[in-house]
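Researcher: Re-running this chain for the archive, since the previous output was lost when a drive failed. Same request as before.
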Amino acid sequence: MWGMGETGAARGRPRSFDRDAALAAAVRLFWERGYGATSIGELTEAMGIRPASLYAAFGDKRSLFEEAVAAYGRTPVGTFMRDALEQEPTAYRAFARLLREAARIYADPSHPAGCMVITGAVNVTPQDAGVADRLRGVRNSNVTAWETRLRDAQRTGELPERVDPRVLAGYFATIVQGMSQRSCDGAGPEELAEIAELALAAWPGERED
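Model: Regenerated structure tokens:
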């Protein structure tokens, strides 16, 4: 359950609530609507708490969003890319797993579509530019990790010397971000899976599933 209401407390003592459940509700709302389109009133309603409790427990909206991004990054949706890179023995298998799981996860109806790190800072106001910068930094750090994995594959001979790992990492980042947006526009897992396979067909080295 994403949100829980405040529980009664002894007279004269502050009301308590399930902080983890409230944070999970905030993650879901930011994921669905993005930072700029989510108001404090909508957050407190979804989290089942009063504004004073939100400010006391999480600080302001920006601080809550920062914590929500961190919480999202600890979920299976937030870790599947890193897990693929770390757990697969070859770069091709890592990126094949990454793209195929993105197709399934981004269109999973049990949670909002797409990736929160991709969609969370759409249409932010100039005074909230730091939010967009924060998520851009997360996305770029992912691309840097992908490039490192591809450079390692090149050193071991899995990728030919003619390949530019930076460009290939950017290519897959573009595919993943596009898959996220397509899922937000209603694309299902079958369509996304076909896109993933088409992207993998461009792999410039040996392919082994």
